[in-house]
Amino acid sequence: MAKNKINGWLIIDKPYAMGSTSVVGKLKWLLKPEKIGHAGTLDPLATGVLPIAFGSATKTIPFVMDGQKTYEFEVTWGRQTTTDDVEGETQYESDLRPTRTAIESVLPQFIGQISQMPPQYSALKINGKRAYDLARSGEEVVLKPRLIQIDSLQIISHTPEKTVFQVQCGKGTYVRSIGRDLGQMLGCYGYITRLRRIKCGPFDINMSILLENLEKVGYNEVASKIISPLTALDDILVLAVGDTEKEALLYGKSITFPLQDMTCNPSCPKNFSDNQVIGLKWKQQLCALATYENGQLKPFRVFAV
Question: Which of 296, 249, 255 is nearest to 274 (CA)?
Answer without folding.
Answer: 296
